[in-house]
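W.,

You were right to be curious about this one. When I first looked at the sequence I had no strong expectations either way, so I just let the prediction run and decided to look at it fresh. Below is the sequence, 88 residues in total, followed by the output.
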Amino acid sequence: MKDIGLALPLTTLGPIFMLSGIASVRKQHWRDSVPLGELLIDRIAGVEPPPRNRLDRGFARFQAWMNIVLGAFFTLCLVAVIISLLSE
């Protein structure tokens, strides 16, 4: 029963991280898009979001690639949990 509780979050975390990372890398959202939290804060304050600089783009690109890596890791963990469930 404990393994099933572990498998449920992994079924959503793996694909969500991987798909968001792949979409960000393919469509290059990391280049010019503003993070959602920053956009909300700027809208509430009534100011325009600042333009992206080199550091912002580098961090967003790193985050996109790490989403792919973490998505693959969580998917492999899910496969390990499913194999352990089936082997019992």
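Here's what jumped out at me. The chain has a mean pLDDT of 85. And, maybe more interesting for your project: The two ends are 12 Å apart (CA to CA).

Coffee later to discuss?

I.
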